[in-house]
């Protein structure tokens, strides 16, 4: 449940329902497994796991939800193998070559035949609403997967007044300045990872991993005109992460201090442990977002 990535969205208006009614509104789009001919289905599940029933888990002003997406695995190679056999069988029986439209129709039939027997794979996407700050934070490194969760939330609520967090100050410009020796904002220091790209040649990229960044070697790339589009940072010795040019936060690692703060007695029941972890994690993430907003600002409507 500890978020490993963040895509940050801000509420531009009030939600269509009070937060304490959110769980009821999600019930209509709760998760139902794929039927025989479904290729994919999405819906809400309890963030506390399959034995729990509540679709929203709240701690103070933070409200956690979890979307489950199930897909049927039907490899193109498997479809092609069955399709080729069918085509050969029909062409041999009728003594002619199938036309393009007939082949397309036959492919659809093959897919409909194979789907009910295909295996399924599921993934979970977590998000929490920081109510007092008006932010929706999604644990995903993929913009597409984050958008899937937003679409599901729109279906559940009827409308969803959110927009991606657009910074007023360019992350590329600021991160390039920091890496070139500029003073970092209070609470932040350089990590050991960065990506630098030539703005005139997008394929010209330098990636540094597990490396001291405040070196002449790194600055030579900046002197040559490269710009920073991802930078490893440490925030208050509590969270390490990689900040991307679109303000996505990736590869989050929580310090031993945070993990120790989250520690509970071994005999504590699972629900209480989950609640303690979420309460601490949400506060840490919320404060990190506050610091990022202070540094980069928000482009208002």
Short description:
With 301 residues, the protein is of the alpha+beta class. Helices cover 35% and strands 29% of the residues.
Strand content: 25-35%
What is the number of helical segments per DSSP (H or I, 4+ residues)? 8
- Mean pLDDT over all positions: 91
**First-residue to last-residue Cα separation:** 33 Å
Structural class: alpha+beta
Largest sheet: 7 strands, antiparallel
Q: Rough shape?
A: globular
Radius of gyration: 24 Å
Given as residue ranges, the uncertain stretches (5+ residues, pLDDT < 50) are none
Number of strands: 12
The helix-strand sequence is EHEEEHHEEHEHEEHEEEHH
**Into which percent range does the helicity of residues fall?**
25-40%
């Amino acid at each position: 449940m500890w978020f490993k990535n963040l895509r940050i969205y801000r509420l531009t208006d009030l939600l269509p329902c009070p937060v304490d009614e959110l769980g009821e509104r999600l019930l209509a789009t709760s998760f139902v497994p794929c039927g025989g001919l479904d290729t994919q289905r999405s819906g809400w599940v309890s963030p506390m796991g399959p034995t729990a029933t509540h679709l929203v888990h709240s701690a103070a002003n933070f409200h956690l939800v979890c979307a489950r997406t199930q897909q049927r695995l039907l490899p193109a190679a498997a479809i092609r193998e069955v399709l080729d056999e069918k085509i050969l069988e029909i062409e041999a029986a009728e003594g002619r070559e199938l036309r393009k439209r007939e082949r397309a129709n036959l492919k659809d039939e093959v897919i409909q035949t194979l789907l009910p027997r295909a295996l399924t794979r599921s993934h979970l996407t977590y998000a929490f609403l920081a109510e007092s700050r008006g932010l929706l934070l999604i644990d995903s490194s993929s913009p597409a997967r984050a958008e899937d969760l937003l679409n599901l939330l729109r279906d559940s609520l009827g409308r969803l007044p959110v927009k991606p967090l657009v910074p007023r100050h360019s992350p590329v410009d600021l991160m390039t300045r920091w890496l070139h020796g500029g003073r970092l904002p209070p609470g932040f220091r350089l990590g050991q990872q960065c990506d630098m790209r030539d703005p005139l040649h997008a394929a010209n990229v330098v990636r540094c991993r597990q490396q001291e960044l405040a070196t002449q070697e790194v600055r030579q790339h900046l002197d040559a005109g490269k710009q920073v589009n991802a930078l490893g940072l440490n925030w208050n010795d509590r969270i390490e992460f990689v900040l991307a040019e679109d303000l996505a936060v990736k590869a989050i690692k929580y310090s031993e201090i945070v993990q120790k703060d989250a520690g509970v007695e071994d005999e504590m029941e699972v629900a209480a442990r989950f609640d303690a972890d979420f309460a601490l994690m949400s506060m840490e993430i919320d404060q990190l977002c506050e610091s990022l907003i202070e540094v980069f600002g928000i482009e208002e409507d």
